[in-house]
Amino acid sequence: MGAVRTKRKPRAVREQQMLDAAVQLFGQRGYMAASMDEIAERAGVSKPLVYLYLNSKEDLFGACIRREATALTEAVRSKVRPDMPAERQLWEGLRAFFTHTAQHPEGWTVLHRQAHTQGEPFAAEVAAVRAEFIAFVAQLILAAARDRAAPCARGDGGPGERHVPALPEHEATGLAEALVGAAESLAAWANATPGVTAHQAAATLMNFAWAGLGNLMEGRAWSPSAA
Amino acid sequence: MGAVRTKRKPRAVREQQMLDAAVQLFGQRGYMAASMDEIAERAGVSKPLVYLYLNSKEDLFGACIRREATALTEAVRSKVRPDMPAERQLWEGLRAFFTHTAQHPEGWTVLHRQAHTQGEPFAAEVAAVRAEFIAFVAQLILAAARDRAAPCARGDGGPGERHVPALPEHEATGLAEALVGAAESLAAWANATPGVTAHQAAATLMNFAWAGLGNLMEGRAWSPSAA
User: Fold this and answer.
1) Do B204 and A91 touch (CB under 8 A)?
2) B73-102 pLDDT, tens per residue?
3) Which chain A residues touch B184 with a CB distance below 8 Å?
């Protein structure tokens, strides 16, 4: 009895091993080509145990998506503190994003590519996480715009504390869509391109984004007539 | 004989009707859910004729991807003339991109989402078109950077006509990846958001991108120490 017990690992540990193996294989080969036999073998467990714990290949795939999405979201949020200036929040968030996707390339492939290939409910789960990210980035952009607009608005003798923000909310959402799309594209490129570090990818996007956003927040919008 | 002939349309016309119907149904329902029966019905032809002309559902899907990719590429390239200033090329290219994706929402869904769901060879075909787009945008960014760097470099008494560009080539590729990723994300958002016009989406991205790129090209890179 004692010998058997020392060989046994807690269920939570086994499950993480299964998810580790599954994310690797799904990411490298795609959902269809990854077999439950191979996932069990790589996890060092029996195939019946994988089915016992995670029910089916579909459920295992769903568990992978949820785990990778949560890990990515937490990696970014843990580095972005609301008391930082917006510019620093954006930089820390981008660095955390590119560091995490570089350290977990298969996890990123599962989220960015594989999740869409198996239709619902997986595509909807990833879309929900993405929508949360975009709302988070849009709030960050709006907060930055408010910070910059505030000194003038408060100094002009207006009737109250509230002032008209320099940036309309739907414009902030559009900018957040652009920024998140750019980050997704760059993460896949950085992972596929030898020699591109997470820091470089983050700096490229910060360079691309910040001066543009910064100008917008100062009310200096680009105009077609200038081109 | 004469009556039969007047009813007949040329093969090329019939094929375009089949592709029109297929793109609509693939874009609206996805590859799996779109049936050949429905495609034939919507195209106003018999199902055997669809198979005779396009061989299989897979081949029909491939033909849709190629037609939509070619149409999008041509729509953008036709508006971007090399004699324009880089800023104008970028603006015209973005306007053409968002106008085309707004006018062909199902075609865009097929390219952006559906093509990845059926694995190879479709994902590879779309990836090849995307790589061409990115190379095109990277060249545009490099040309703009050279234009801006040239006056100083030529005035400093260097040994020849050639000068060190302000922007390294791999950095231009990274920026092009970011810009194309941002455009893809915004196009899907604009199509899904009532009231967002192609012009607005193009202006949002131009605002986001140009001031940032413009600063880079003037040698004013963003630096982490500033945040």
Assistant:
1) no
2) 999 999 999 888 877 888 899 999 999 999
3) 181, 185
Nearest residue on chain B to A205, alpha-carbon basis: B178
Kindly state whether A94 is in contact with chain B, defined as any CB-CB distance less than 8 angstroms.
Answer: no
Is the ipTM higher than 0.90? The answer is no
Q: Is B204 on the interface with A (CB under 8 A)?
A: yes
Domains belonging to chain A, first-starting first, are 64-218 (1.10.357.10)
CA distance A148 to chain B (A): 15
pTM to 2 decimal places: 0.82
Q: pLDDT tens-digit profile of B51-72?
A: 999 999 999 999 999 999 999 9
List all residues 6 or more positions away from A198 whose beta carbon is below 8 Å from its beta carbon: A95, A98, A99, A101, A102, A103, A190
